[in-house]
Amino acid sequence: MWNMKQLAYGALARRANQIKDELRQGVRKPYKEVIDVFQGDLHGAGMKPLTFVRQVLAACVYPPLINSNNLPLDVRQRAQKELGRCVGGSVGSYSAAAGIPEIVHSISEFIKRRDGGIPSHPENIYISPGSQWSISNILNVLVNREASPRTGVLIPVPCYNITVLSITQLGAVTVPYYLSEEQAWALQVEELQRALESAKGVCSPVALYVINPGNPAGYVQSQKSVQEVIRFAWEKRLFLLVDELYQDCVYGENCEFVSYKRTLSEMGPPFSGTVELASFHSVSKGFLGECGLRAGYVELVNLDPAVMKHIHTIFSKDSCAPVLGQIALDLMTDPPKPGDPSYPLYKQVGPENCTLVINSLPGFSCPPLEGGLFAFPRLNLTPKAVQKAKVTAEMQEDPDTFYCTRLLEEGGVFTSPGWEYGQKEGTYHIRFCIAAPQDIMEELLRRLSSFHMTFMKDFS
Amino acid sequence: MTLVTVGKIQPIASDSARRRGSTGRPWGNTNTQGEEARVSVEELLIAELLIFFFSFSMFQITLQLQRCARDITNMSQQAVNGISHRGRVLTLDSMNPNVKRVEYAVRGPIVQRAVQIEKELKEGVKKPFTEVIKANIGDAHAMGQKPITFFRQVLALCSYPALLEDSKFPEDAKKRAQRILEACGGHSIGAYSTSQGIECIRQDVARYIEKRDGGIPSNPDNIYLSTGASDAIVTILKLLVCGEGRDRTGVMISIPQYPLYSAALADLGAVQINYYLDEDNCWSLNITELRRALNAAREHCNPRVLCIINPGNPTGQVQSRQCIEDVIRFAKEEHLFLMADEVYQDNVYAEGCQFHSFKKVLFEMGPEYSNTVEMASFHSTSKCYMGECGFRGGYMEVINLDPEVKAQLIKLVSVRLCPPVPGQALLDLVVNPPQPDEPSYATFMKERTAVLSTLAEKARLTEQIFNTVPGITCNPVQGAMYTFPGITLPQKAIDKAKELGLVPDMFYCMRLLEEDGICLVPGSGFGQREGTYHFRMTILPPTDKLKVVLQKIREFHLRFTQEFS
Fold first, then answer.
1. Do A92 and B388 touch (CB under 8 A)?
2. Residues of B whose CB is below 8 A from A310
3. How far apart are the CA of A456 and the nearest CA of chain B, in angstroms?
4. Minimum mean pLDDT range among A135-139, B40-44, B410-414
5. What ipTM, to 2 d.p.?
6. What is the pLDDT of residues B379-411, one digit of tens each?
7. Which CATH number fits domain A87-333: 3.40.50.2000, 3.20.20.10, 3.40.640.10, 3.40.50.1760?
8. Three-state secondary structure along B375-390?
9. Scanning every residue of chain B, which has its alpha carbon at the shortest distance from the alpha carbon of A63?
10. 3-state secondary structure (DSSP) of residue B432
11. Do B190 and A146 touch (CB under 8 A)?
12. Is A92 close to B141, i.e. CB distance below 8 A?
């Protein structure tokens, strides 16, 4: 059966590309452009890169620009500084395996500032070509392919699908714990407990993967919740893998990002010196949105020094992360200060409006978005729509795939169906990126509303 | 729970191989180019996700079975009060045992010591030298090589497109930048590309290969862009390695080898099969030796892959066309998948030597070979005349790959999301450089020729000077960027090394580093015949500096030999 499903979904992505081609060739549709909010790809969705970042990168790439008056002074000075850190003064040379030492240092300073002064040690930080690369390197050290029972990793449901793929490719077993949609996707310790028990006789769980702020669901964990998770990891001897990619994307009322590292440290002994933690961050999200540059980092806490030696070798084998990406990381963690000519101005688009519109649509419900880049509203489909989905196109289709396909065809909005990320049986969702520029977001919500009303009428 | 493992690549590849075992090819039937199943990343993700999805229901069943036993009291409090000691989760004993076996000499202990010495120098510690020369790694820009102007202009334009208005940039650079930007999502190199790489760049790569190989067709669908060549090499190995015990995949690699291979094989738990290059014949590859190694290995593993590095790293030899033909014939006869590491294809210096691509030779050998032998060829933006290591650009071309395996390959690369887009852009310029009628052509050719002819001169110089030193024997550096001379070490030095718990050539290189500030990689990091000792040195330092380095090594060697004789 899953082969059928595979075809159904592949068809959605292919169809999106086809429609884009058709539009380019002048085929008439009810819309002029497909809004592609299927990935968390900010530039792809229309966000403009930060001028300062790109000016510095351009000057690093082509140093004669440092001496030209085309670029602001602080840009040229910054480029000069970055080049001074590159071996041979060129972004074309390899860096040290962990990354350019000064940049690793500025990341550690950033973490320290973020965490209210709790120290961060540069030797525990590794820069990699994107955070997923770090995640698979750390997983690789954790997962023993030949172990019996096999290594298990607890993962949230819904969960970012690429990480799931990394885990299964390494031969580990995913152990799902469900986030509570009714409570704005809260993470509950009882559910972690249940999940852990469910693994008995199946696999041997060694790690707990957490995404905060969430993807695809837009929750932000409270400090209390973080504490509970840490306590749980301590008690059950689990290694914490914490995806904190969206730490700069928090906008919910009374919400604040509190890092696992900070919380762990503030909890004091016995936790602070024991719980092993890997926290991941990247230039792909946040205010830079530079996915294409491929740079991220991991900070490791409380790791056995003997194991750290092997982690170093594993990162060495990859040569190094792309140097331009490393420089972007530096600009992210050490941005221009207020008063600098290039002090960046970037306003997060209004997600409040987004929830408001979604919740005004009959059949849609979405807890307030607190953070992250995505909306993951629940879709209450009528039995007729579910039925229709099941008999469509000679194959059984997921009702949410059916909805996404129609939304793409009729509304020109490319979203992804909830089953991709995992969802409770009998519930349906769609995921879309909410970080497109204001005008695109408004258009998206207009199209979604109008499509949705017709859809609901057709299947009432 | 077998469902959960369906996502593992290896069993699928191995099943496929077994199913198709009768054809005798590692991965099954011939497929002519152009008719591969086109499977999108999404389609592949879904297989994984479904497995993941199905696992929920299995877990729900487990849950129900265990519900009665569930203790819903607050476990946290109990544990905090009840357990006083909690060991680490991740220790040397619990970690992936394969990771323990991974070593990477090019960035190994000697390099870490070099970094330390640099720090000491900065802090004002007195040494017999004022700077450390890191001749351990093939990093051209680190050694002062200047980037190619045209490449950097286009990349600057791609980074900050407002510069397209700047009249100081030549028109052809602007044209290239505009074309690349148009192929990027949101016209930004900051957007993700597809996991296989930007389509128009793959098309350019395919055209470049066709031109290089005298018109033999290349299909963009067979091109996968990567994060440097290493990434692509590891990816292909991941696909190939499977089986347990005597059925475990064996991978043939040359000795000396580039340590990426041994590291990747250790990580994947594959069996490394060593075949020795013939040092007495300019490090040439000998089919009798390949056969010996293969037959010996068949006793304990299942050899499925043959890796070739041409031009050679660390050994600098360039294979003759005849040798390549022999290797291809051997691979076909023995049903081996060929991995051709051809990242130094533009680095050929010796007179009478020429680079022949494995693909070209394969196709010239006729359909009997070109329709059956499975192969992957690797290239990179890090070497040749541009030496842009920091961009992490590269690609591989796969030939005769089973469409089902290609589907798995797409899934494998999708966990990396995509190769760095600036690296992809750079690769596009490498495969599509300025043409004679374009304004940047003259400068480009001048820069390119200057780099390559200097390298050729340095290759000659290195061989010449080393061969004047008694106790050092150096083969001609026909290509690539390294020399791998043999060194004769006095018995007393060998004993001393043993006493210190070091391999003899590590002891030699450490002494050289401490005394002269020159960082080389000991031959043991690459593999060598027992009882022989070598080091690898890159020929990249600027000519003047290289002369000094060679002279210093010469003096050191004489001193060292005298001390221990």
1. yes
2. 95, 99-100, 102
3. 27
4. B40-44
5. 0.91
6. 999 999 999 999 999 999 999 999 988 888 988
7. 3.40.640.10
8. EEEEEECCCCCCCCHH
9. B152
10. coil
11. no
12. yes
